[in-house]
């Protein structure tokens, strides 16, 4: 996680902008978390918030001609971003809208100079994208170009069709949508922070129910790492894009790499580029990849996609080692280590994600489980290249985890009566 993302999350939690619990959204959906940027309307918070937006702008390397803040929260957000940019010697015209047309004085719906040229829209959150569309269409009606939208939080909710709200906006309006954090980031932060671990299960379940970024865990392509750069707190990976894999790929798209959900840094025209933070490296086998290693790839699915495997989020639960390989004429059996704390969730004939492959679980022993690999799986995935001792990324079905934990709690409650 980048410094400004961590700063944003800690600021949101301290100001109680981000709260965990049970909330009913405007859409009627039940959510395990809620985000209300208005709670940052305090001098100290506002300056720190402005710094987060400024650092996100610099990190994204974007260019624009003016700033637009949609009423109501976009008004103060656009204002503080404009001020901090000016503090760094960058001055941009700022405009925002009224909710109702003013019929006297200067009149109209726009306060400030009408947006011109390439417009940066600043807002707090993207949910279904309805409010964003209104802003985009208003800007376009003034003959300006709604080029970029920057928000604090992308909830990664579905839009009106098969795509997420973000994907829908980018596709329909040919624009770029950037967020400081998204639901993926929130889950990663919660997993690594003991104060918020108790919310991880509900966040994962919510992710599966409503988010468009998911995988069917059917590997579609194999690819090789050919550039790997290590920095103090992350690594940068470059993978040669297989033929056809990058069709209509956009910057910010989610891609499964060995089962790990990573964010594409660009459109992947020639190569796929990713940054992998420390938290991901700690929990996956990407911490040991070297130049030339072959990885499994899959693009995120749409609601209309045929589900050939099982739905997974790309959030790895643990890594496991290959304990034994039995090679047969055309197939392989593999025995894989199983940490005790996950043993209740791994059961015979259930399913599991192994390096991004959807597989049926064979027999389950005390500290291991077995998988059986058919010729097609060996042909199209990197599982055929494994040796005893190699490390695997393992993702367990979140529904299984939820059911098992619910049954445990129910039985414990009955026993305590």
What would you say this structure looks like, in words?
- This protein has helices spanning 3-14, 43-60, 73-87, 130-141, 165-173, 183-191, 200-210, 278-283, 375-380, 398-415, and strands spanning 18-24, 30-35, 66-69, 94-102, 108-112, 118-126, 145-154, 176-182, 221-230, 234-240, 254-257, 260-263, 271-277, 294-299, 318-327, 332-337, 351-354, 357-364, 368-373, 391-396.
- With 417 residues, the chain is α+β, with helices and mostly antiparallel strands.
- The strands form 4 sheets. The chain has a 6-stranded mixed sheet, with helices on both faces. The chain has a 6-stranded antiparallel sheet with strand order 12-11-14-9-10-13. It has a 6-stranded antiparallel barrel with strand order 15-16-19-18-17-20.
- Strand 9 (221-230) and strand 10 form a beta hairpin.
- Helix 1 runs antiparallel to helix 2 (43-60), helix 2 (43-60) crosses helix 3 and helix 7 crosses helix 10.
- The radius of gyration is 23 Å and the shape is globular.
- It starts with a helix and ends with a helix.
Structure, briefly:
The protein has 417 residues and is an alpha+beta fold. 28% of the residues lie in helices and 32% in strands.
Features:
single chain; about 425 residues; alpha+beta; 6-stranded antiparallel β-sheet; about 30% strand
Write the layout of secondary structure elements.
Layout: H1 3-14, E1 18-24, E2 30-35, H2 43-60, E3 66-69, H3 73-87, E4 94-102, E5 108-112, E6 118-126, H4 130-141, E7 145-154, H5 165-173, E8 176-182, H6 183-191, H7 200-210, E9 221-230, E10 234-240, E11 254-257, E12 260-263, E13 271-277, H8 278-283, E14 294-299, E15 318-327, E16 332-337, E17 351-354, E18 357-364, E19 368-373, H9 375-380, E20 391-396, H10 398-415
Parallel strand pairs: 3-4, 3-6, 6-7, 7-8
Antiparallel strand pairs: 1-2, 4-5, 9-10, 9-14, 10-13, 11-12, 11-14, 15-16, 15-20, 16-19, 17-18, 17-20, 18-19
């Amino acid at each position: 996680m980048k410094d400004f993302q961590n700063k944003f999350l800690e600021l949101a939690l301290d100001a109680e902008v981000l709260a965990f619990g049970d909330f009913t959204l405007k859409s009627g959906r039940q959510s395990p978390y809620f985000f209300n940027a208005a709670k940052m309307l305090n001098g100290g918070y506002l300056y720190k918030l402005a710094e987060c937006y400024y650092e996100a702008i610099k990190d994204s390397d974007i260019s624009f001609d003016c700033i637009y803040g949609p009423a109501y929260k976009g008004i103060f957000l656009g204002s503080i971003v404009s001020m901090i940019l000016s503090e760094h010697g960058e001055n941009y015209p700022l405009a925002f809208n009224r909710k109702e047309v003013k019929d006297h004085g200067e009149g109209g719906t726009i306060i400030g100079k009408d947006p011109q040229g390439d417009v940066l829209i600043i807002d707090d959150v993207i949910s279904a994208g309805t409010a964003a569309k209104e802003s985009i269409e208003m800007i376009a009606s003034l003959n300006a170009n709604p080029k970029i939208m920057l928000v604090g939080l992308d909830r990664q909710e579905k839009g009106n069709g098969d795509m997420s709200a973000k994907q829908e906006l980018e596709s329909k309006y040919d624009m770029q949508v950037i967020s400081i954090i998204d639901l993926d980031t929130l889950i990663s932060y919660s997993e690594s922070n003991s104060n918020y671990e108790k919310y991880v299960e509900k966040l994962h379940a919510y992710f599966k129910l409503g988010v468009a970024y998911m995988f069917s865990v059917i590997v579609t392509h194999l690819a090789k790492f050919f550039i790997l750069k290590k920095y103090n707190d992350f690594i940068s990976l470059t993978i040669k894009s297989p033929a056809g894999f990058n069709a209509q790929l956009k910057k910010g798209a989610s891609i499964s790499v060995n089962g790990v959900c990573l964010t594409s840094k660009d459109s992947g025209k020639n190569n796929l580029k990713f940054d992998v933070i420390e938290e991901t490296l700690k929990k996956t086998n990407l911490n040991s990849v070297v130049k030339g290693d072959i990885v499994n790839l899959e693009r995120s699915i749409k609601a209309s996609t045929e589900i050939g495997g099982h739905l997974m989020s790309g959030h790895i639960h643990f890594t496991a080692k290959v304990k034994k390989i039995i090679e047969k004429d055309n197939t392989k059996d593999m025995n894989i280590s199983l940490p005790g704390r996950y043993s209740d969730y791994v059961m015979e004939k259930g399913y599991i994600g192994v390096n991004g492959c959807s597989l049926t679980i064979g027999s389950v022993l005390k500290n291991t489980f077995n998988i059986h690999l058919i010729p097609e799986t060996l042909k199209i995935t990197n599982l055929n290249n494994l040796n005893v001792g190699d490390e695997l990324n393992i993702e367990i079905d979140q529904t299984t985890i939820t059911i098992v934990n619910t049954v445990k709690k129910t039985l414990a409650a009955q026993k305590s009566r």
